[in-house]
Amino acid sequence: MRFPEFEGEWEVKKLGEVMDFKVTNSFSRENLNYEYGTVKNIHYGDIHTKFQTLFDINYESVPFINEEIDISRISEENYCKNGDVIFADASEDLNDVGKSIEIININEERLLSGLHTLLARPKKDIFHLGFSGYLFKSNSVRTQIQKESQGSKVLSISVGRISKIELSFPSVEEQKKISSFLALLDERIQTQSKIINDLKTLKIATAKKIFSGELRFKDDNGNDFSEWEDKKLGDISIKKSSNISANTLEENQGNFKIYGANGLLKEIDFYREEKPYIAIVKDGAGVGRLLLCEGKSSVLGTLDIIKNKEQTDLLFLYYLLETIDFTKFTTGSTIPHIYFKDYSKEIIGLPSFPEQTKIANFLSSIDSKIDIENQLLQKLEAQKKYLLQNMFV
């Protein structure tokens, strides 16, 4: 895939031929803060989790190096500059080893490349600003980096090994066209992500007002609903356990959904629950996570099933549970666990069934909007992935 106005072969060079590596530091999180300082520091964890491909310091939250840390021996050439590429040299995940950002705007701030990073700087003006960021995200380059990584539990990439990978790049003018096009798509993805986050924030704020009684609904005739009753969660719901293990399902295939801690696990040839229900992760890292599950489905034994009693709307119960902080019910130091016998004592406000339905439908409409926007985001991200696979030789 190529813009029609360009032709000719792309140049091929090893990374070590076109980039020099500068010295980085090994300051840990304990040596950094977000409140004061004169020099900022790139931590490899932030490359993995939050920094954009094209790093503009005006739009990123970057920690300062603590003022008591002596950085006087760091030479000027090891401070970051526009056009530098910073790699995270370690990861537990093959997909993330060697993940990188390109600095496109440092805004004259003092910035260093820190713990578990490699700082690469083009030897001359062979790359248009912004092109390297996408080049190192391309399928051809990422595959090479992954092959050069070493380690078992923690994967790493060294300067020596990453310097061997081959980079294929066009003229600066074509680079400019490619990077500008992909930057526009990235901007659209960021905007779409903000739309989704704003909707999620709206839902949380609205649900808080609803379940605190600050926001009330009217009935279909414009009249007030009856006052809410104080109930224990156990008065309006019941718990059921599952004994299904993932190990027993490896070869099982079918048409009925089974859910695990992270959502839909797979489809199998049987189901345990006839009607829709709520599932809650009862132990492990995701303890307290909620799932709204379809009828004719099942859950693994790491989840409990929560069902609504009569005169309680299931969808209302789901949104009510979303407002509860389950961390206060956790027990166990190594593996956190929650028990229904504990959180079933939580006192909640229960409106009449018609008002429950109104509340559930209202919050569900926001969820539906979030789902639609998420689908659009997934399409944009798929488009970007396709372009990164096909626009680079």
From TrEMBL:
<dbReference type="InterPro" id="IPR044946">
    <property type="entry name" value="Restrct_endonuc_typeI_TRD_sf"/>
</dbReference>
<feature type="coiled-coil region">
    <location>
        <begin position="363"/>
        <end position="390"/>
    </location>
</feature>
<dbReference type="InterPro" id="IPR000055">
    <property type="entry name" value="Restrct_endonuc_typeI_TRD"/>
</dbReference>
<keyword id="KW-0238">DNA-binding</keyword>
<feature type="domain" description="Type I restriction modification DNA specificity">
    <location>
        <begin position="9"/>
        <end position="200"/>
    </location>
</feature>
<dbReference type="InterPro" id="IPR052021">
    <property type="entry name" value="Type-I_RS_S_subunit"/>
</dbReference>
<feature type="domain" description="Type I restriction modification DNA specificity">
    <location>
        <begin position="226"/>
        <end position="382"/>
    </location>
</feature>
<protein>
    <recommendedName>
        <fullName>Type I restriction modification DNA specificity domain-containing protein</fullName>
    </recommendedName>
</protein>
<dbReference type="GO" id="GO:0009307">
    <property type="term" value="P:DNA restriction-modification system"/>
</dbReference>
<keyword id="KW-0680">Restriction system</keyword>
<dbReference type="GO" id="GO:0003677">
    <property type="term" value="F:DNA binding"/>
</dbReference>
<comment type="similarity">
    <text>Belongs to the type-I restriction system S methylase family.</text>
</comment>
<dbReference type="Pfam" id="PF01420">
    <property type="entry name" value="Methylase_S"/>
</dbReference>
<keyword id="KW-0175">Coiled coil</keyword>
